[in-house]
Amino acid sequence: MVSKLSRRLSDMIDLSHIRGVVWDLDGTLYRYTDNFLRACNIAAARTAIALGLDMDEEAAILMAAESERRHGNSFRLFAERGIRYEDFHHPYHMAVDEAVLEKNHEMRLALDDVSLPMIILTNASKDWAKRTLVQLDLAHKFGDGFILGVEDAGFVSKSAGRAGFEKALSAIGVKGEDALMVEDLPANLVHAKGLGMTTALVHHANHNHAENVTYGHIDHHFDDTIDLVRLLGK
User: Fold this and answer.
1) Residue 37 — φ and ψ, nearest 5°?
2) pLDDT tens digits, residue range 19-42?
3) What are phi and psi of 198, to 5 degrees?
4) Quick one: how far is CA 36 from the chain centroid?
5) pTM passes above 0.85
6) Which of 50, 159, 155, 142 is nearest to 95 (CA)?
7) Total domain count for the chain?
8) What is d(CA 168, CA 171) in angstroms, rounded to the nearest whole number?
9) pLDDT tens-digit profile of 87-118?
10) What's the CATH number where 165 sits?
């Protein structure tokens, strides 16, 4: 069922020029939960210890949680202790338990109505993205050639450069001006906008990212991903 909000958005936002969609994954196609963040912190702590961090597991979990609180990810404080992200990336994502992710039946049905070519571009690993999509019952929408991890962009994150966006656009065969980039982090949309992409921020009622905050590189704001998906499926 289409919500009243979705109907209002369809009257306000014109996405008729869009010929392809590049999706962020984590925090965009599903919302973070306390259980998920706890799983990330445990995986980060155990991975850092395996890579040589001299700390007991409980203290490392607390450090990961503090890193998440201060920096938005479980890794940053471990980097300050000498852990290299290139060494951390794959084993960490292998260690996160995707079973804690909550399925969203409405999201799956709404995405099934979208006929545009779509691709995942994530700062996580490709393996994590594949497992996540299976857990969320969305794997049928994104085949092997339509999932890009940050390793596919030479470990150039979305906030750091254009490499991932350029690969994504090439994979779906769409020019920047005809593509939509959907993210939950404003910093990850700067380079997308630089390539001419239409940019959409899903802020999940996070008032730090809401519409009253000015971001010149963001074209559209959405409180919930599913409202955007329903616009694309019109």
Assistant:
1) -65, -35
2) 999 999 999 999 999 999 999 999
3) -75, 135
4) 14
5) yes
6) 50
7) 2
8) 5
9) 999 999 999 999 999 999 999 999 999 999 99
10) 3.40.50.1000
Distance of CA 131 to the CA centre of its chain: 14
- Give a three-class secondary structure readout of the chain: CCCHHHHHHHHHCCCCCCCEEEECCECCCECCCHHHHHHHHHHHHHHHHHCCCCCCHHHHHHHHHHHHHHHCCCCHHHHCCCCCHHHHHHHHHHHCCHHHCCCCHHHHHHHHCCCCCEEEECCCCHHHHHHHHHHCCCHHHCCHHHEECHHHHCCCCCCCCCHHHHHHHHHHCCCHHHEEEEECCHHHHHHHHHCCCEEEEECCCCCCCCCCCCCCCCCEEECCHHHHHHHHCC
Q: Which of 102, 145, 154 is nearest to 123 (CA)?
A: 154
Residues 222 and 107 in one domain: yes
Amino acid identity at 70: R
Domain membership of residue 189 as a residue range: 4-32+102-232
174 lies in the same domain as 110: yes
- The span from the CA of 78 to the CA of 64, in Å, is 8
The token duo for 108 is: 């799956």
